[in-house]
Amino acid sequence: MQNNPLPRLDEVPQLRAALERHCRLRPGEIWEDTIGKHRVGCLDASQWEDVQELVRNDLAQLALHDPPYNLVAFEKRSLGEFVDWCRHWVANTERVLAKDASLYVWIGADQSEGFQPLPDFMVMMRGTEFRPRSFITMRNQRGYGTQKNWMAVRQELLYYVKGSPTFSVEAEYTDIPKILRGYYKVKGVRREGRGGLREGVSFYQAPMIQPEQMKK
Description:
This protein is α+β, with helices and mostly antiparallel strands. The protein has 4 helices and 11 strands. 19% of the residues lie in helices and 33% in strands. The strands form 4 sheets. The chain has a 4-stranded mixed β-sheet. Strands 9-10-11 form a 3-stranded antiparallel β-sheet, with no helix packed on it. The longest helix has 17 residues, at 79-95.
């Protein structure tokens, strides 16, 4: 299959115009299902007026956020500007949550830039009404790539609470998959095996770190 990635829409106005005809929501618009159970808005979570229009007079017991951090599709911000922007939508989130509620935030940690913005976001959260409940590490299926383009094997998920929400200790947890298709490649391995000493490339499978394949 030929790989034909789409270019950035902000750099190709012709493509953007062609796709916008199929967009159901315009900036500022809100869609609600016929039975009033779901609302989807094309809004700015850092603006209280937008959030208030979406939630109306309802209060939520759970909020999940996955803020973009300097992705090419968005305007690039400095670290300080990003944290200040987060402070606004976190405050808006607190205003629309019930007195006992949970907040989950996916946040990145760029190891080439001092692991920002993860620690900076955590420090900012100390000045809010939320209390930290857990630091969750989510494992990806694989961690593999080139030296300059490595896909991390982990992602950080912060869990905060407002008040005292119910937390079920009897909830079912996802089992660790028995087969992982992510391999760690180690070059220059020498190991005694069938047929004598073998040298080449070894592929190790997580989480047991057992030799999976050896090349002559």
